[in-house]
């Protein structure tokens, strides 16, 4: 089984830096494959706490190299919940890559474990008779400290449903649980990695990036 690793995160940072320079990133230093994947960007606030800055991926398998290249930019620049990440924010960023595995259809909407499983919910909106869906990666629910029911209700809202959340609605959910392999790295560690392996620091517009 393919596991998320340092080189995948480096490639995401490389891709974002290359975007700001109007260039192409260096070749990926990991083997390709086909898996569902996500790229998450967080930004350090007040010198410590990391807050979500963008998170987008795919629940369908796709090539890892092109997938991380595409979603590193999509999550950084086109997550509709946030303004695009600017180059001046680089030194405050942390990137996490996730590879999703072990998809299983759960018989009940509570048949999953916080911290172990990510979940995908699908249900029919009783007000508009339309299908809705949403997902949380395994680390999201654990980080928020939610119970399983709190996570389900939050996902129902994330899916765009604004009506009353009833037990009947919860029981109508088709739930898919999955697991993930993830790896995180902050910008300072990325800079150190690039200096060590390439004998130079990342640059933006020809100026040496600030290392904080």
UniProtKB/TrEMBL annotation:
Pfam family, one: AMMECR1
Domain of life from the UniProt record: Eukaryota
Residues in AMMECR1 domain copies: 1-194
Coiled coil: none
Gene3D superfamilies: Hypothetical protein ph0010, domain 1
Stored PANTHER family: AMME SYNDROME CANDIDATE GENE 1 PROTEIN, AMMECR1 HOMOLOG
Identification of the protein by name: AMMECR1 domain-containing protein
